[in-house]
UniProtKB/TrEMBL annotation:
One of its GO terms (molecular function) is DNA binding. The lineage of its organism: Bacteria, Pseudomonadati, Pseudomonadota, Betaproteobacteria, Burkholderiales. The gene is benM_2. This is HTH-type transcriptional regulator BenM. It comes from Saezia sanguinis. The keyword DNA-binding applies. SUPFAM superfamilies: Periplasmic binding protein-like II, Winged helix' DNA-binding domain. Keywords: DNA-binding, Transcription, Transcription regulation. Belongs to the LysR transcriptional regulatory family. Transmembrane segments: none annotated. It comes from the Bacteria.
Length: 301
């Protein structure tokens, strides 16, 4: 088992497709497929469910993805520390974000780089459990994720505007007044954002169905919302449950956007970092940019 195989596997999970992962890695598909196959053989477990247009992770695959991200981050962090010890001049600012919080994390990175052109900005996506673990081990400097139910005094936590979730429904289904019930959703094949730990939006959604004794029929799971956009455009049977903000026009024009507020499906995101990181000039500037954007959003509302 090699680090390259773990990177290959993580990219396939995040892109939801062997073709898209190969393009992102700038390699052809055969060595990518072979690398994943060899990894599965080494671990003695099937990690991916392979479909004609997409892949999804198995239960074992979700666990391996989480651990693989930790190993990769540890390796990258080790390289960074070695570079510092050897007198390398470049410094790093490492940002982590959950899929639903991507825009909070990434929209201001170009402005941050203009202010600090000598730093290398690293951005990594993961679920809430992975991000908190990465903060604790200082693999990342700051994270954007769902606000934890139990607050820890070692963190500086800044609440961000609520994120509403919607159901994207093709005209194949009847949906009156852009409202859909949980009972109706339980009869549809769902495309949802993946979460490997037990405290993300995915598990809140699962618990909602379970409490109402309804089946939770997921057909597609991915960490990348853009993978879900592509898949629902190709398969009109799928109903995607995604953050309401930043829906592409191609989605809005082809799908009914049904609100889910009446089901309590909102996310309360936050910006979180260890208090020991608060004195960094880069951190302070980044927080200023985020605060400014939040004020602009509040005025727009």
């Amino acid at each position: 088992m090699s680090l390259k195989q773990l990177r290959y596997f993580c990219m396939v999970v995040e892109k939801g497709s062997f073709i898209k992962a190969a393009n992102a890695l700038n390699i052809t598909q055969p060595p990518l497929s072979l690398g994943i196959k060899n990894l599965e053989e080494k671990l003695g477990s099937k990690l991916l469910n392979r479909g004609s247009h997409h892949v999804s992770v198995t239960a074992s695959g979700a666990f391996v993805y989480q651990k693989s991200r930790e190993i990769i981050e540890l390796y990258d962090s080790m390289k960074s520390e070695i570079a510092k010890l050897e007198g390398a001049s470049q410094s790093y600012f490492r940002v982590g974000y959950s899929p639903a919080c991507q825009s909070f994390a990434t929209d201001n990175l170009p402005l941050l780089h203009q202010e600090f052109p000598d730093i290398c900005i690293s951005a990594v996506m993961g679920d809430a459990g992975y991000l908190r673990n990465s903060l604790d081990k200082e693999y990342i400097d700051i994270a954007f994720l769902q606000e934890p139910s139990q607050l820890d005094s070692k963190y500086e936590i800044v609440p961000l505007p609520e994120i509403e979730f919607v159901a994207l429904i093709s005209n194949k289904y009847e949906c009156s007044n852009k409202v859909i019930t949980l009972q109706e959703l339980s009869k549809m094949p769902l495309a949802v954002l993946l979460s490997a730990s037990g405290d993300g939006f995915y598990h809140r959604l699962y618990d909602l169905f379970k409490r109402n004794n309804l089946p939770f029929r997921t057909a597609v799971e991915s960490l990348d919302k853009y993978v879900l956009f592509d898949l629902i455009l190709k398969n009109k049977d799928l109903v995607a449950i995604l953050p309401a903000g930043e829906l592409p026009e191609r989605i809005k024009s082809n799908y009914t956007v049904a609100k889910l507020n009446h089901l309590g499906l909102v996310m309360r995101p936050c910006m979180m970092h260890l208090k020991t990181k608060d004195s960094s000039p880069v951190m302070n500037k980044f927080k200023q940019l985020i605060t400014r954007k939040n004020k602009q959003l509040a005025l727009a509302d």
